[in-house]
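REQUEST ID: PR-0412
SUBMITTED BY: lab tech R.K.
PRIORITY: routine
TASK: structure prediction, single protein chain
INPUT:
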Amino acid sequence: MKKYSLLATGLLLLSHSLAAPLAHAAEVDVDNLVQEAERASYYSGNDGRSDARMMIVDNQGRKQLRQFTILRRDVSDNGDQQMMVFFSRPSDVKDTVFRVEKHVDVNVDDDRWLYLPALDLVKRISAGDKRTSFVGSHFYYEDVSGRAISEDTFVLQSDEADAYVLKATPKAPDTVEFAYYVVRINKTTKLPMEINFFKTNGDNYRRVEAVKIEDIQGHPTVVRSKVSDLQTGGYTLMEFRNITYDLGLDDDVFSERSLRNPPQQWLN
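STATUS: complete
OUTPUT:
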């Protein structure tokens, strides 16, 4: 909430300085703001491609690297969505593929699969596993494909100079490990810049940050992000390169067949 200087000590001026930010906050359409933030984060363009590099750092400073390409196609803005993640490095995850069919209907769980080439096995990721580690990183599966905004209840906590701060409480608390999270949404780009997750005892145990933003084809885009385990000190950095939107990707790219036979024309 904005701070106002009190240039006089009169009761009238004091009451006005306290009421003004509250009145302004009441004008914010939280539902619309959350939809804008979701659209800015996951729905830029009709589809998209990017190369990603992930560096995983544990609490002892040891590092692991992951490299992969992400293809994404929207069925509709803020609607159903398809995603494929093709791993290329290191050798122990090469040719692993993560496939997502995202559904906005709160009554329909997202479909997620992981293709494990060493076993030639397609493993379905259950709804209960969506908040577990994504290939050994501090990112969760749900971080990569996006958490549906319909799963949480949002309220405005404060209206700052450059950001709105919202508190989100899960509608089904038994399905997640957090009690609530607080998200800062940039007023200009509508991108969530920082998300802090809290336990029921109020401990802030996890943080997701948009570290660097660039304009790509007219879309403010996160090109570097970070997830931190605030309890252990470990973290994962993810950088995105060669980002392109509106490629005209068709439905076949996101089919089950692409798990074993990746669409090479979009990966090279």
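NOTES: The longest helix spans residues 11-26.
REVIEWED BY: pending
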